[in-house]
Structures are given as C-alpha cells and as structure tokens.
Specification:
- The protein has 278 residues and is of the alpha+beta class.
- It has two domains: 5-153, no CATH class; 165-268, GIY-YIG endonuclease, CATH 3.40.1440.10.
- Helix content is 24%, strand content 26%.
- The chain is built from eight helices and 14 strands.
- Strands 1, 2, 3, 4, 7, 8, 9 and 10 form an eight-stranded mixed sheet that branches. Strands 11-14-12-13 form a four-stranded antiparallel sheet, sandwiched between helices. The protein has a two-stranded antiparallel ribbon with strand order 5-6.
- α2 (35-41) packs across α3 and α5 packs across α6 (213-224).
C-alpha cells in the first residue's frame, strides 16, 4: 500500500484542509531557468517566481494558508521542493523582473504573495516524489481532495549521473539547465558533435576545439539558434538534438580535431545529405 502525501502532512501536524498543492512547470521559461532549475540553482529567484501570480488564480491560491510546492523535473517527475505559509499581499507593488525569462511583471499587473518557508518539511525538499496524476494542467489542487501517492522517497537530493560522452543525447533547449556535474564534464572535453533536426531529419557535424569545450560551443547555438553556421542561419529555428561523436585526446591539437571532423562528415555524408557546407 503506497504512502500518501497527506500522511506526511499529518505526521508533521499539518491539516490537509489547510494546504493547497502547486506543481510548477513553465513552458515559457528561458533555457536554464525552468522552475526546477530556479529552485536547484537560486532558491530566492524561485520564490520570487512563485510569489507573483495571475489575478485569475487568486481564488484557488487563497483557499488555504499553506502551499506545498512541487516542480516538474527534466524527466517529467513531480518533486516536492518546499512547504510555505502563504499570505495574499495585494497587487504587485513595483516592477519586478521575471526570474524565468527576460520580461518584467509591471506594478499592478499581477497578485503578490508573502511566502515563508515552513521548516517542518524542510528535510524532505528534493527527496519526495509524488504521482500528480494525468491532469498536469490543473497545477493548483486542494490537498484534502487530492491525496497524492508518494512514488519515491530518496535519502538525499541527487541529480542523475553523467551518462558518459558517447551516451549523451539532449535537445539544445535543455543544455543550459543540465546538472552542474554534467556541465563540468562537457567543459573539459573537446571533439566532434552531431546536430540532428527533428523537423527535417537532417544532420550537421561540428567540432568543439576552444575553451570550455563542447559546453561553450553548444551554448552558442542556444544563444543564437545557428552558432554562425551558414546552413542553419538560412532555416527556421529548430530544437536540434545534440550528441557526441568522438572525444579528442588530451594531446590533440586543432588540426587533429579538424581532421576528425572531416572524417565524420565523410562517414555520415553530411555535406551531400545534411547541413554541412564545407
């Protein structure tokens, strides 16, 4: 029989009727600034994000004095990130930059809430995963009406281990928000990578030979959409999948890496049937 989230609340002296459940998953977020990434990397920014809410949600968010906050992880799981005492303050008092994207909430354009962390559940943050159910669009729910099953309870918050260079495959849109240990590995390595377009199924072979290795090169695509490549500039934006074809040895110089790149272009025929133009 599964453990239920409301049982955890009761064990800590919190009545489910006094709690609403929030699941944050924001498709408007800029790369590296999803609610999960904000919570992981900058807790105050996450709390600013959570404290500014649309007028239309006021009746739902004011039903109970406590918020149990969850975020969608990169693989779609629902992770508990904090219990808050929440109090409606009124309209937003001053212009406030949005933590999740490069826009501003103007004064008076949304509701503002005062949030105080409830330390009674602080030791469970990042460790409890629940089954939210199929209605992920219903991101605000009453705890007493929705007794969520706990599907995993971890001893500590831990992100997935780096899969290794040859097993690495991710959309470019997720590169900025990768775990810090993954980013560290990608910064230390140079070599040959592959971009594949999910729309046209075409391939592009490229090389990373400068400082901060694969990571720096891929972030150029994230920032510009094309990384300076002629063929990619001429196309609509696409969320290319990026993977590693070959890692250069520690003694490899830029000429060695260029030879590796040419060899992969010939193997995959990415000049004839892909997006390479040289």
């Amino acid at each position: 029989m599964p453990i239920l989230f409301n049982s955890l609340l009761a064990q800590h002296g919190i009545a489910p009727a006094a709690v609403i459940l929030l699941r944050h998953q924001d498709k408007r977020a800029s790369p590296g600034r999803t609610p999960y990434e904000l919570w992981r990397d900058n807790r105050p920014a996450f709390e600013v994000y959570q404290s500014c809410q649309s007028f239309k949600n006021r009746s739902k968010l004011s039903r109970a004095p406590n918020w149990a906050s969850f975020v969608a992880t990169p693989d779609g799981a629902t992770m508990f990130v904090g219990m808050y005492a929440a109090k409606y303050k009124g309209l937003l008092a001053k212009d406030t930059p949005q933590p999740h994207r490069d826009k501003i909430d103007l004064a008076g354009s949304c509701d503002a809430y005062n949030l105080q962390v409830d330390e009674r559940l602080a030791d469970l943050e990042g460790k409890v995963f629940i089954d939210w159910g199929g209605g992920t669009r219903a991101w605000v729910q009453r705890a007493d009406n929705q007794n969520k099953p706990i599907i995993e309870l971890r001893p500590e918050f831990k992100e997935p281990d780096f899969p290794g260079f040859l097993n690495f495959m991710e959309p470019l849109s997720k590169v900025a928000g990768l775990p810090k240990t993954w980013i560290a590995n990608l910064k230390q390595a140079t070599g040959i990578y592959l971009l594949t377009c999910p729309k046209t199924k075409e391939q592009y072979v490229g090389s990373a030979s400068g400082g901060e290795g694969f990571w720096h090169r891929w972030m150029e695509y994230v920032m510009t959409g094309h990384g300076g490549n002629i063929a990619l500039k001429s196309r609509e934006y696409s969320d290319y999948q990026v993977s590693v074809l070959e890692v250069a040895g520690s003694s490899s110089n830029i000429d060695d890496i260029r030879d590796m790149e040419s060899r992969w272009k010939m193997k995959l025929q990415s000049r004839e049937m892909g997006l390479n133009r040289n």
